[in-house]
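B., you asked whether I could sanity-check this one before it goes into the benchmark set. Here's the sequence:
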Amino acid sequence: MTRTKKITVAFFLNKNVRPDPYTRSPLLSGKELYPLYIQVTYNRRNTQFRSTYHKSYSNIKEIYSTKEEIDHRKYEESLIKRVIEYEVMSQGKNFNLKGLNDRYLNYSANIFNPIDKYFRDLIYSAVEKTDSEFSKILDPYNLEQVSFFIYYKAASKLINDLDKKLPSDFLEEMNMGLEFLKWVESQDNLIELIDWLDHSAINAFESYLIKKGVNANQIKTMISFINRIFKYYIGLVVH
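And here's what the prediction gave me:
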């Protein structure tokens, strides 16, 4: 296994771009504010991209001026390092920093997003097969603010034979998805994809299931199901 070399994460204000035109106001004493960027260095290579917080500052000291700002810097630095460590483990010598920004955004996404999309896609695919007059109403993009389970219940009430169009193991998988959703919602902090990839979330989820009395085979099945969705939708493989 390739050993992760030193990773350096540095924050800076990008003054090579025009200052935010909406921040030059009397309340700000006409100060020019510049976007916060991050420079990542690994194995004598570096890349730069904008901070996900998309804030602008008049000087670099402001990015550490409050506890909230300090926490944001610590969070981004930690997440970037975890992403690189995971990718080095996955790709070995083939790893490079190109495209790190996009991968960083993927890995910091809510862990439940791919699960939710998986069930919505299955349900809508079944809805389309029915040629129902309600198919347009049941477009998943019209119902993004409700959970996949409510989406399923609505579709089932409007289309009597919906279950005949769904995969035979749909209900079994949906129950696993609902159990996973309960666990995600029970956590104090947002669970991100990188938490699953580095096994910290897997370990926590397993502990949760064990406390609920779920047997080892069922736990293994549930973990494999979630891993399969991640691989299918976003190409992420858990090692």
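One thing to flag: Residues 7-107 form one domain. Otherwise nothing jumped out at me.
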